[in-house]
Amino acid sequence: MPKLTFFNLPEDKKQTLIDAAKKEFSSAPLFDASISNIIKSAGISRGSFYQYFEDKEDAFFFLLGEFAKEKKSAFLSMLKKYDGDIFQTFIDFFELFLKEDENLTFLKNALLNMTHKIELTFDRMISDHEINENFNMLCSRINISKMNVSDEVELFHAMQIITSVLLRNLIHAFAHDLPRDVAIENFMTEMNLLKKGLVR
């Protein structure tokens, strides 16, 4: 989490620093990213950087967290649009990632260099890793009558499975530079298999 001095910056200076960090994390994965490049692009000193962030990981996860918040809001809007239909929501959500423009290379670098901490951040776009208040809020928006689940525990695990399918398909699409229509077709095939079930 950035330090208070970062949040106290004027908006233009804050945005300049965010843009510089995003530029660096878009050109290199976290472990290869350079604070020197960030401060050069932002026009600040190394000392100033450490007044705002603990280290480059702090800056990276702030950016990823902000991206996740934005996408979580979009996910909830889609869920409302489709009257709680979780499958149609996930299909639209997947397409939203493929339409990313401004954050595309940042997103690719994050997904193609996945760590447990990065995975947790992506998971929180949809639901947490445990049944809690946030998950209960999400449950209240899902049309469970369209799903073959008997309680919130089964719904929780169903959401974990679908989220895993989403992330795996995104990683595969980015790793192999799949055309958008092919990536969507692959994802929809797997979603339809989940909808039908795999046992006769």
Say how many strands there are.
Answer: 0
As a percent range, the share of strand residues is under 5%
Determine Rg (CA atoms, Å). Answer: 19 Å
Helical stretch count?
A: 11
Average pLDDT confidence is 90
Distance between the termini: 49 Å
Supply the number of structural domains.
Answer: 2
User: Helix coverage percent of residues?
Assistant: over 70%
Structural class: mainly alpha
**Residue ranges: pLDDT <50 for 5 or more in a row?**
none
Order of helices and strands: HHHHHHHHHHH
| Biggest sheet overview | none
Which of globular, elongated, flat, extended, rod-shaped describes the shape? elongated
Pfam families: TetR_C_19, TetR_N
Domain HTH tetR-type: 11-71
Keywords: DNA-binding, Repressor
GO molecular function: DNA binding
General description of the model:
- With 200 residues, this protein is mostly helical.
- Helix content is 70%, strand content 0%.
- The chain contains eleven helices and no strands.
- The mean pLDDT is 90.
Keywords:
2 domains; single chain; mainly alpha; 200 residues; Arc Repressor Mutant, subunit A; elongated
What is the fold's blueprint, element by element?
Elements: H1 4-7, H2 11-27, H3 35-42, H4 46-52, H5 56-81, H6 86-99, H7 104-112, H8 116-123, H9 133-139, H10 152-175, H11 180-196
Protein name: TetR/AcrR family transcriptional regulator
Keywords: DNA-binding, Repressor
Domain HTH tetR-type: 11-71
